[in-house]
Amino acid sequence: MQGGVIELSWWQLSIGASLVVALAGVTHLGRLGLGKDLLVAGLRTVIQLAIIAFVLEALFAVASLPWVALMATVMLLIAGYEVMSRQKHRLVGGWAFGIGTVSMFLSSFTVTVLALAFIIGPEPWYTPQYAIPLLGMMLGNTMTGVALGMDRLTDGAWRQRQVIEGRLMLGMDWRAAVADIRRDAMRSGMIPTINAMAAAGVVSLPGMMTGQILAGTAPALAVKYQILVMFLITVGTGFGTVVAVLVGSRRLFDGRQRLRLDRLKSSG
User: What transmembrane ranges does the database entry give (predicted)?
Assistant: First the structure.
C-alpha cells in the first residue's frame, strides 16, 4: 500500500490485459472484425500512458511555466488533428484542423486558466499537478463535442445541398438556409456532455471522482471537485462547439452567398 492506495503489480495488470485479449478472441470468432482494433487500441493505451507517466513525473519535478505551456500546446495540436480526422466530409486547405484547434483553444484554455486562477487557486496557478489533468479533461471532452458538431454540420450540408440551394434561390441568406443544420450540429456536439451531467451519480460515477476516492480523498471533497469539473467541461464543450459550427458553416458559403461544397473533401 502506498499513500493509502493499494499498489498494483505488473502481474495484476497482465490479468486485465488477458481479459482484453480474450474479448478480441471472442469478437474474432464472432466475425465482428474488431479483434485487431481491440488489440491495437489496448497496446496504444499501454504505450501512451507509460510515456505520459514519465513526462508528467518530469513536468511535476520542474513545475516550469514554459514546459507546462509546451505540454499544453502539444495536447492541443493532437486534439486538433483528432477533430479533423473524425470528420467524414472535412473542409480542405487546413480549415478543418484550424477551426477545431482554434475553437478548442478559445474555449478549453480560457476556461482552464479561469478555473486555475480564480476558482481552484493553486500556487503558482500553472502548477502542473492541477493544470495538466484539468486541461486534459477539458480538451478531451471539447474535442468530442467539436468533432461531433463539425461532422454533423458538413455531413448535413453534403446530404441536404439541394434543400440549401433551393432556399438560397428563394431569397434566403446563407444563415437562414443552413440554420436548422447548424442547430442540429450544435445539439449533437453538446448532447454527450448534457447526458453525462444528467447521469452523474445515478447511472454512472464520473472517473475523476472515482479516482480521487480510490486515492483516499473524502467522498464529499471528491464530489465537489467533480461538480466543478463537470460544469467547466460543459462550458468549454458548449462554447467550443458553438464557435466551431459558426465558423465552419460560414466557410461553406462564399461572399456571394453560394454553397461551396467544393471546399469539402470526403474521407471515403
Answer: 6-26, 38-59, 65-83, 95-120, 132-150, 193-215, 227-248
pLDDT at 88: 86
Which of 86, 107, 99, 137 shows the shortest CA–CA distance to 244?
99
Angle (CA) 255 258 259, round 5°: 120
Look at residue 1 and tell me whether its pLDDT is greater than 70: no
Please choose, from the candidates 60, 97, 95, 65, the residue with its C-alpha nearest in 3D space to the C-alpha of residue 81. 97
pLDDT in tens, 193-248: 999 899 888 887 788 888 888 888 888 999 999 999 999 999 999 999 999 999 99
What gap in Å lies between CA 239 and CA 138, rounded to an integer? 12
CA distances from 155 to 66, 85, 112, 263, 265 (A): 39, 14, 31, 13, 11
Q: Where are the alpha helices (DSSP H) in the chain?
A: 10-29, 35-62, 65-85, 95-104, 110-114, 128-159, 161-169, 174-177, 179-199, 207-214, 219-251
155 close to 203: Cβ distance less than 8 angstroms: no
H or E segment to which residue 171 belongs: none
Task: Look up the pTM and report it.
Answer: 0.86
Question: How many residues belong to the chain?
Answer: 268
The DSSP secondary-structure symbol of 42 reads: H
Q: Residue range 35-41: average pLDDT?
A: 92
Interior/surface letters 132-160, b for 16+ CB within 10 angstroms, e for the rest? bebbbbbbebbbbbbbbbbbbbbbbbeeb
